[in-house]
Amino acid sequence: MKPIKLILDTDIGDDIDDAFALAFALNHEALDLVGVTTVFKHTQARAHQVSKYFDTMGVHHIPVCAGIGKPFKQPIQYFEKDRVQNGVVLPPQYEPAYEAYPISNESAIDFIIRQAEIFKGELVIVPIGPLTNIAQALLKAPHIKPYIQKIVLMGGVV
């Protein structure tokens, strides 16, 4: 069976679940992780955190792209565990030393669009955070909709 071409769209850094999802995507033989995009609040910090994680795992070939930090319509929700540093909200699990780990200059939106065009009909996107990057990619390039095989997510209402 041909490995599934996968983009993991994550809000890593607030709790452990996204790191587990990332480890799973990296290590499952049925998956080909073609990139990671970050979403929600300080996406640059989240992207550097993924890059640090990859470095720890010896992975240096998978692009990490920062996406959109603010929701389109709803105000950002802040939590007790959020860390504010110089007026910027950083993920609780983020450390300033992570900035040394490289991330792509390509935006998450452009990366999603480009990968959809490359892997026409094969790409699966797994958002494990807000859907802002995916929404923006589809708004910017609606022609990619049929190029995305599926979007796999879990959701609910609180």
From TrEMBL:
NADP listed as a keyword: no
Recorded superkingdom: Bacteria
All residue ranges annotated as the Inosine/uridine-preferring nucleoside hydrolase domain in the record: 6-157
Alphabetical list of InterPro entries matching this protein: Inosine/uridine_hydrolase_dom, IUNH, Ribo_hydro-like
A Pfam family assignment: IU_nuc_hydro
GO MF annotations in UniProt: hydrolase activity
Keyword terms, alphabetized: Glycosidase, Hydrolase
Protein name: Nucleoside hydrolase
Natural source organism: Paracholeplasma vituli
